[in-house]
Amino acid sequence: MDLSYILNHLGEDREAYFNSVSPPVFESSNFAFDSVAEMRKHLKDEMDYPFYTRGHNPTVAILRKKLAALEEMEECLVFGSGSAAVAAAVLSSVQQGDHIVSVKNPYSWTGKLMSRYLGRFGVTVTYVEGTDPLDFSTAMQPNTRLFYLESPNSFTFVLQDIVAITDIARSKGITTILDNSFSSPLLQTSGKLGVDIVVHSGTKYLNGHSDVIAGVLCTDRKRAEHIFETEFMNIGAILSPHNAWLMLRGLRTLPIRLKQSAETTAYILSQLETHPRVEKIWYPHHPSHPQYELAQKQMKGSGGQFSISLRVEGPEEIDKFCDQLQYFLLACSWGGYESLVFPVAGLSGTANYKESPHPWNLIRFYVGLEEPEVLWKDLKQALDNI
């Protein structure tokens, strides 16, 4: 199934919607039936038929089909946030007394799920670096049920050898979950790499316009049915039909957005690597990355997100640099049309991020769709005026 067909045609069924080019938004909470028999049919399979929008909505269903196809997996469920998708994936994979092996320093709210909540129910977690597949096998216990991966992570872009780790997991009957938010399915296709459940913050590249919070979970049909009937329907963290429609709109331009962002990033990195204020560049497809060869092996590219550590004396110089930027907005997230900057120093003393595992002089950037020369000029003037 080719990419153009998935993004522009799969699941659209235009003949059912007056041949509208853009799919309609079904802003209905429930659906009526002509007979009890028809109602019963829909109730027997709420995952595939509309009965109540918490379970199945026609607009959301179009999005689910496209996302599953992009990840080359059988099914997809979408949620009201990325953290909701992660929570559903993890909770569906463990029960009381089980053990998880997770990469060290996962996304902050994933870490909080594992450290704050799972322990209440007798689930234990061992954190590993994960750069060597043996980290996972060494940390295994008789009650290990889950390997949690995040490749790359979203600050220092540490990778795991996904095929090697999923091979270990499969030989022991252990479930694997991968957070693929950094790459999107276009730059790293998890279904080809042996992952059981892939999750995304759909807020990022998949939506691409910084106006939707969403989560994505792709997996096989049997597992999706189990998650749908338990975590998905019970917790109810669903994506609204309107937000699903906005994501469908965003998917249309996903390839060209990724391409533009990646090309501009390559240009900016070529300028940054010779600037005296830049101590280190963090980017999976930069030759200086310690896992550069692995990135080339399992990823098609690294998109528009990178980090640098600055050669400065103290945090006040980080603040000065960031405050002088004119085109990079001080904000979290990534994947939209606007360029962003997020300093680790900005986390200092905040309620949920009292201590960061990352260096204080690390700054993460996301490169949007502005002109490359404009963004570099902005970066250079801020670097030169620290």
Provide structural commentary.
The protein is of the alpha/beta class and 386 residues long. It folds into two domains: 3-252, 3-Layer(aba) Sandwich (Aspartate Aminotransferase, domain 2); 254-384, Aspartate Aminotransferase, domain 1. The chain has 14 helices and twelve strands. It has helices at residues 3-8, 36-44, 58-70, 82-91, 108-117, 134-139, 162-172, 184-187, 221-235, 241-252, 254-272, 292-298, 315-324, 372-384; strands at residues 75-79, 99-103, 124-128, 144-150, 175-179, 197-201, 215-219, 278-282, 305-310, 329-330, 340-343, 362-366. The strands form two sheets. Strands 1-7-6-5-4-2-3 form a seven-stranded mixed beta sheet, with helices on both faces. Strands 8-9-12-11-10 form a five-stranded mixed beta sheet, covered by helices on one side. The protein is globular. 45% of the residues are buried.
Keywords:
5-stranded mixed beta sheet, 386 residues, Aspartate Aminotransferase, domain 1, 7-stranded mixed beta sheet, alpha/beta, 2 domains, Aspartate Aminotransferase, domain 2
